[in-house]
Amino acid sequence: MTKKGLNQNAKYVQELIDIIEPNFIFENKPINRFEIDKNIKEKVDQNLDKRTMLEELKRKINSIEDCNLKDNAKNLVLGDGNINSPVMLIGETPGEIEDSSGYSYQGGVGELLKKMLAAINIEKEKIYTSYSINFRPPNDRKPTSKEIRRYSIFIKEHISIINPKIIILMGSTAMEAVTGINDKVSLEKGSWKEIILNNKTYPLIITFSPSYLIRFPDNKRSSWEDLKRIKRKIEELNIKF
Hints:
Layout (H helix, E strand, L loop, with lengths): L2 H18 L12 H30 L5 H5 L6 E3 L5 E5 L4 H6 L5 H12 L9 E4 L13 H18 L3 E5 L1 H8 L5 H4 L3 E6 L2 E8 L2 H6 L4 H17 L5
Parallel strand pairs: 2-3, 2-4, 4-6
Antiparallel strand pairs: 1-3, 5-6
Helix pairs in contact: 2-6, 6-7
């Protein structure tokens, strides 16, 4: 091939390269793709670890023997929502709809909870919801103190797994299971307290449960004050969803 032919061939090759080569736009600050991949892997691993621990917790609860609550329930209701949420909401016990579906806060109670959270700009799906007792009691009776103590081990382990920044306790059963306080919610609600689990401190607030508010709607005004306190704490801690 002549020199002219070589030059033309080289020109053709260069033009071909220019056509198929993507136009990269670089920022002044280089992208650390290794760091991005590392962060993604850490989040994936964290999710897998949490889900594994939650499955193990579920297995432990299901292995309970001689339990009137478990023996009369259809399903174990562990919890649902965002397992990495900074907010964990713990209620009392599943009701009939939750027992049938296996999901927390369904039906009218769930709709009220959604409205309560929406009032302070929180979507229910973005928090993690659970119960202090994972089985529906027969005829929706209140669990005994003995039953609450038995299940308190599991809800405390549950909290450690989710590892939230704040905890919302709804109802007296949740209050007793997590804090050990056996009193009226009206006497303990509305102020921030702390619980230490595995050497970690969790801020928590006690308030009325949605099911209680449905039965006694006059207490909704008081509950609204608690919701505003929760909103202020979220802003104070700069919690993002």
